[in-house]
Design a protein that fits this description.
With about 150 residues, this protein is of the alpha+beta class. The chain is about 40% helix and about 15% strand. The chain has helices at about 5-20, 25, 35-40, 45-60, 95-100, 125-145, and strands at about 65-70, 70-75, 80-85, 90-95, 115-120. The chain has a five-stranded antiparallel β-sheet. α4 crosses α6.
Length: about 150
């Protein structure tokens, strides 16, 4: 699928739809699948979105793909991880409980509480993404870790 509009308009529609969720007319244009999300993303994001999706599928081949809160997610009874396209980067969201185990390796990346930013102008760190995703998958399957799990007192 090449998207609903020519590439020049896809990004505009993508941003309007994801920013104005309360507009009922725009709701019909919201991507409902990851394929639609990638098609509507800015051209510079699409290759990275395909790449991160492929990595996550390799790690969690049984996971269902969905769109939640306007972002692609992989889930197995609960959300495993999410990712999203932004103006200059891809956000990967494996949760803070997972990221805490990789803080040293993530020192070269901009991170938030639950997110890692991968700029479009640099290669995706496929091995690191694989290891982070595998850690999260194991934590969910073996320990029942939730998406918004609170940090345990130390």
């Amino acid at each position: 699928m090449t998207g609903l509009f020519p590439d020049s308009l896809n990004y505009i529609v993508f941003r309007i739809v994801t920013k104005q969720n309360s507009n009922r007319d725009m709701a019909t244009l919201k991507p409902s699948t990851i394929d639609e999300y990638i098609s509507a993303a800015p051209p510079e994001a699409r290759e990275k979105l395909h790449e991160i999706r492929t990595i996550l599928r390799e790690v969690a081949p049984e996971a269902r793909e969905a769109i939640k809160w306007g972002s692609p997610v992989f889930e197995e009874n609960r959300i495993l991880f999410a990712f999203s396209a932004h103006k200059t980067h891809i956000n990967f969201m494996p949760t803070h409980t997972t990221l805490d185990h990789f803080r040293t390796e993530l020192a070269d990346y901009k991170t938030g509480k639950d997110t890692i930013q991968f700029p479009y102008d640099k290669p995706l760190p496929a091995d690191l993404i694989r290891r982070v995703a595998a850690f999260r998958l194991r934590a969910v399957r073996e320990e029942g870790v939730r998406w918004m799990q609170k940090k345990r007192a130390q």
